[in-house]
Amino acid sequence: MPETASTTRAPAALLPSLAPLLHEWLPRQRWFAGKGRRVTGFTLEAATELLPLDGAGPGLLHLLVRVEQPGRPAGQPADCYQLLLGVRTQLPPRLAPALIGRIRQGPLAGRAVYEGLRDPRLAGLLYERLRTPGRIGPLRFCGTAALPASPAPRMLDAEQSNSSLVYGDSYILKIFRRVSPGANPDLELPLALARAGCERVPEPVAWFESGASTLGVLQPYLRDSRDGWRLALDALAEEREFAEEAHALGRATAEVHLALATALPTERLRRTETEHLAREMDQRLASAAQAVPALMPYVPGLRAVFAAAGGTVGAGQLQRIHGDLHLGQTLRSADGGWAVIDFEGEPAKPLTERCRPQPAVRDVAGMLRSFDYAARTHRPWNAEWAARCRDAYCAGYAAASGTDPRSDPALLRAYETDKAVYEVLYEARNRPDWLPVPMAAIHRLAGAE
Q1: Which of 17, 357, 365, 382 has the most CB within a 10 Å radius?
Q2: How many Cβ atoms sit within 10 Å of the Cβ of residue 15?
Q3: Alpha-carbon distances, residue 415 vs 114, 324, 368, 401, 419 (angstroms)
Q4: Predicted model pTM
């Protein structure tokens, strides 16, 4: 692969010329984590021309940009975002919805800048880079298998914390928007599971990175599959049971946990660790209640849930887990088999925390909350449907693992509560109309009913 310059011709002037456009565009993106806080400045970490900007056709500019915002904890660096910007003299009408703006000054003055992933030509270029591993400036493209010629790309619109491109019906490339130092678990864990022989997770076939930071991962696209969230909502709409599917999903979750415990180090879960976990949950609650006053009346009851978990003698082990497991992170194939995807963990949390060994019951709690979420979105609220799904899921997990997650009720309830608090904060910031869904769980878990 021929190398190009790692920076643009005038990097010092590039960011100031882009800053007015980014100030407007970045906070509107679903994957921007700093919503609700003003942007005060930008710092350019790296700029790479993946396709030269001075050619006759479109250019593709890869940027790693730190976004300065007030309220950041002392010593914590500003969030770093990955941007892939298309640059054209004239933007064709089909790309008008992707327009970010036109640059007024600097090395790209007069050019139109747009979301490059929405341009099929530029999206295809990324795939070609992954087909031919090597370096371009600070970017390194890696692969484990030979890839066919580039299929037609399309960008998915359902993403929240990242962006994804689907190439034909063969592959999906996830682009990590907020970048942290270190291997992203959405690459690390599927590779480990593949080594362990676990077939529940699509194996990465290529990826790219900068330094120690993972920037994107290419995996097989399970085109004949449907996600668990949609399947659950369809079952509710058709007044069908979902317990059989939930049981099979519980088995699949347990198989993934067992494989992770085989492939990666584990630790014994001691009482000191449960006390530490409970303190962290309590701290997250205090922070969330400051941001969402509706939580305040429930704080005493929720703290009691966490205290009960902290007072237990730890059972089981700490291990690597999914970290953000819910129905939307699962796919069911036409033959009924379940796959688990998206091992990034909760993107709002620091990478070091997401990579830390944790009790497997945390994943179980996330899925139990997801069944409740699905049932709460349906009218009328079908509490019995959710309860049957939750029981079937735990039974399936126990059948595959030999351990019923309900055997440690204090820790399971604490993780369900912690997840509900996270959901309240997320919905308040991003989807206020959905806030009643997790608040109903808060009401129940705090012992208010």
Answers
A1: 365
A2: 18
A3: 41, 12, 10, 19, 6
A4: 0.92
pLDDT of residue 2: 38
**Contact between 199 and 106 (Cβ < 8 Å):** no
Confirm if 356 and 182 have CB atoms less than 8 A apart: no
Q: What is the mean pLDDT of the chain?
A: 93
DSSP H/E element including 79:
strand 79-88
Asked if residue 165 has pLDDT above 90, the reply is yes
What span, in angstroms and rounded, lies between the C-alpha atoms of 303 and 443? 13
* Cα gap 114→118, rounded to integer Å: 8
What gap in Å lies between CA 179 and CA 165, rounded to an integer? 18
In sequence order, the 6+-apart residues with CB closer than 8 A to the CB of 325 are 253, 340, 363, 364, 366, 367, 370
* DSSP symbols for 21-76: HHHHHGGGSTT-TTTTS---EEEEEEEEEEE-TTSSS-EEEEEEEEEE-TTPPTTP
pLDDT tens-place string over residues 93-125: 999 999 999 999 988 999 999 999 999 999 999
Torsion of CA 351, 352, 358, 364, to 10 degrees: -10
- 243-263 vs 185-195: helix crossing angle, rounded to 10: 90
The pairing of strands 171-176 and 112-115 is unpaired
Q: Give kind and range of the element (H or E) at residue 14.
A: helix 11-25
Q: One-letter amino acid identity for 361?
A: V
Residue 161, classed as helix, strand or coil, is coil
Structural contact between residues 137 and 4, judged by C-beta atoms closer than 8 angstroms: yes
Q: 263-292: b or e for each residue (b if 16 or more CB lie within 10 Å)?
A: bbeeeebeeebbbebbeebbebbeebbeeb
Out of 85-89, 292-296, 312-316, pick the least confident.
312-316
Task: Tell whether the model's pLDDT for residue 203 goes beyond 80.
Answer: yes
Q: Could you count the other beta carbons within 10 Å of the beta carbon of residue 361?
A: 27
Instruction: With beta carbons less than 8 A apart as the criterion, state whether 135 and 317 touch.
Output: no
CA-CA distance, 21 to 353, in Å (whole number)?
33
Residue 358, φ and ψ in degrees, nearest 5: -140, 165
Residue listed under structure tokens 């907020």: 178
